[in-house]
Amino acid sequence: MHGPASGQTGLGAAIRYRRDIDGLRALAILPVLLFHAHVPGFSGGYVGVDIFFVISGFLITGIIAREVNEKRFSLVHFYERRFRRILPALTLMMLAVLGAAAWLYLPGDLEGVPKSALAATFFVSNLWFFADTGYFAGGADVKPLLHSWSLAVEEQYYIDFPILLMLLARFAQRWRTAVVATIAAGSLALCVAMQRDATGFAFYLLPARAWELFAGALLALGAVPVVRAHWLREGIAWAGVSAIAFAVFTYDRSTLFPGVAALLPVAGAAALLHGAPGTSMERLLALPPLVGVGLLSYSLYLWHWPLIVFTEYATDLPLSGWIRIMVIGGAFLAAFLSWRFVERPFRNPRHMPTRRIFGFTAAAMATLCALSLALFTTGPWSSRFSPAVLAQIAGRDDVSPKRGRCHDSFVRGMQPCVLGAATPPDALLWGDSHGVELAYALGQQARAQGRSLIQRTASSCPPVLDYMAKDARCAAANRAIFAAIRANPHIKRVYLAAFWANGDFDDPAFVAKLDHSIKALRAEGRAVTIIGPVPPQPFDVPRRLAHLACAGRLAGATGVDRATVEERTRHLRKLFTAWQARGVDYIDPIAALCDTRHCAIERDGKPLYFDSHHLSVAGARLVMQRGG
Q1: Residue from 150, 191, 38, 137 nearest 459 by CA
Q2: Planar angle of CA 510, 432, 621, nearest 5 degrees
Q3: Average pLDDT by consecutive 10-residue portion of the chain (628 residues)?
Q4: Nearest to residue 436, comparing CAs of 273, 609, 188, 195?
Q5: Handedness of CA 59, 62, 65, 69 (dihedral sign)
Q6: pLDDT at position 6, please?
Q7: CA 212/CA 560 separation, integer angstroms
Q8: Which of 330, 259, 263 is nearest to 299 (CA)?
Q9: How many CA atoms lie within 13 A of 583 on its CB side?
C-alpha cells in the first residue's frame, strides 16, 4: 500500500518510475473511498486494500532484493525509508483524530480511541482490533483509526521479510524463490481454511494476509517468466483489470472475504503489474488524473476514513447526497495538503537528513503515546456533558445482565442458561443476538408466573435449520438446539427471535428454510411463538438521543418510518401471517413500537434500543408486554 513511487522491470535492471503503478494505486484507493462513502455500485470496494498489498510487496521486495544481491542492503537505511514514507503523515492524521474525538465523542465511544491510537503508534492496531470484538466494543462507525490495521499488517511483514531475504541470500540463494513461494502458499492455505471463522483472524492478522504481499514479492523476484508476446501482455493486462472490476462491482458484505474470493483482486493486481508494461492498459493507467490520485493514495487512505466516521457520528446518519460529496471532496483536499506539505518534504533527504528523521520518529511516537495515555486516563470524560445527555448514553448499559454468560453459550461449549423461577423449564427461546434481551424479559414474566425457560442464542445465527452463516458453527449450533428440543419433552413452547429485518433474510430461499424449521418444530408437538421483526434504526439510538438531549430537542424523538420496515420484511411477514392462521402465535414488535407513521426509539426517557437494532431491556419489556 505504501511502497515508494518507483517500480522495476527486474532485479537486474535499474529501478525506474512506472506511472502505471501510480495509476494502479488509484484503482485501489478509489473503490475503498467510494465503498466507505456508501456510493452505490461499489459494494466490493474493500478489495482495494488487497491491491495495495500486492503493489507494496512488488515494489518493496524489488528494492530489498536488488540491494541484497548487490550486498549493500542496510536494515537501518531500509527503516529510515519506511519512517519517511509512513510516519509523518500518519502522525498528523492521528493527532487530528485524537483532538476530534476528545471534542466530539460521547462517553462509551471516546475510551476506545486512545487505546487504538496507542496500538497504531506501535503498528499493532490489527491485533488490537482483532481482540476488540463483541457487542460492547463499539462498531466500525466509532473507530476512526480502524483503517490503520492494514498499515500494521504491512509493517509487521517488513520486520521479518528483509531478514528472511538476507538469510536466504547468505545460505540458500538458489532456493529463495521456492522458499518465498512455499511460505506464500502456506499463508493462502491458512486464509482459505479460516475464511468462515467469525473472529476476524483471516481479515486482521498477518499470517492469513501475508500471501497477498508475497504475491507481489514473487513477481519482483522473477518467479513468473517475462511475457514477450505483445498480444499476450495485452490480454493479461485487460484480464487483470477485469478481475479487479468484477470484485469491486459484484462482491459485497456477504462475500466470504478474505479467502478464495481474495484471489481475484490479488491476481488482477499481479496481472497488471506483470503484464501492463508496453500495452494500452499501461497508457490508460498512466493518464494524468489516475497518476495524480495514485500519488495522493496514501494520504487519501489516511484521511478519508476519519472524515467519514466523524461526519456520520455528528449527523447520526450514513453519508448521502451533498454531505457525501463534501466529505469526499474534503478527503481529497486533506490528502493533497498532506502530500504536498508533509509527505514530500519528509521524503526529501535534503529537507530532512537521516539523523533528523530518526529524531522525528522518536519524538512523534513519544508525543502520540503521551497524548493517548493522557486521554486514556480521563476515561469517558463524562464531565463534558449534562446529566440529560448522560442519561441517554446510559441506555447502552440497559442490556440483559445474563448476556455475557448466557449468549453464545453453545459455541463456547457451555450449558444453556435457564431464566425465571427455580423450576424445570417449559419453554425455550431460540434465536440470534436479538433474542437475548427478549429472553430476559420473558424470563421475568416466567418468574412472576412460577415458570422458567431456556435461552439458546448465538450471534448472527437465526433459528433456521440448514442456514449457512459465515460462521460455520451456526449450522451445528442450530442442529444441536433442535436435537435438544426434541430430546426434552418438558419443552412445550419454542420462541423464535432474530434480526428478521436484516435485508439478507427477506428472500424466498431463506423464507423456505424458516418455513421448514417451523414445520419441524410443530411436527415434534411444540407450540411455536414467532417474535417478529424489530424495526432497525439508521443510527445508534442512545447516541442519537444524547445528541438530541444536548440540543434540547429530546421530546418527540422518533425513528424509522413504519412503512420502510414493513417493506423491508414483506416476504417474512407474509410467512408469519400464514403461520398465524395455522395456530402459530405471533408477537409483533412493529405493532408494539410503531404508530401509523413512525417507530419509537424512547419511552419515558429511556432508550428502547442499546444500539441501532438491538432492543434494550426497556424495549424488550415493552414488546413482550404489548405482544405477549
Answers
A1: 137
A2: 120
A3: 48 66 97 97 97 96 91 91 94 98 94 96 96 62 95 95 91 91 97 89 95 96 92 96 98 92 97 95 96 97 98 93 97 98 91 86 96 93 90 91 86 82 95 95 95 93 87 86 93 94 79 91 94 92 93 84 88 85 90 93 92 95 83
A4: 609
A5: negative
A6: 41
A7: 42
A8: 330
A9: 8
Q: How far apart are CA 45 and CA 461, in angstroms?
A: 26
Q: Which residues contact 568 (CB under 8 A, 6 or more apart)?
A: 501, 503, 506, 533
Classify residue 628 by burial, with Cβ atoms within 10 Å: 0-12, 13-18, 19+.
Answer: middle
Question: Is the backbone peptide bond immediately before 4 cis, with ω within 30 degrees of 0?
Answer: no
Residue 556 phi, psi dihedral angles, 5° rounding: 80, 15
* Res 135: pLDDT: 38
The answer to whether 150 and 419 are in contact (CB under 8 A) is no
> Grid coordinates standing for 316?
447520526
Residue with cell 454468560: 405
Tell me, what amino acid is at 18? R
Nearest Cα to Cα of residue 439 among 426, 450, 452: 452
Q: 603: which strand partners? A: 606
Grid look-up 482483532 returns 130
Taking Cα atoms as reference points, which of 458, 540, 468 lies closest to residue 504?
468
- Rounded Cα distance between 453 and 60, Å, is 59
Q: DSSP labels for 90-147?
A: HHHHHHHHHHHHHHHPPTTTTTHHHHHHHHHHTT-HHHHHHHS-STTS--GGG-TTGG
Q: Which residue has the cell 463483541?
A: 134
The strand pair at 427-431 and 452-457 is best described as parallel
Residues ≥6 apart with Cβ < 8 Å to 115: 128, 132, 372, 376
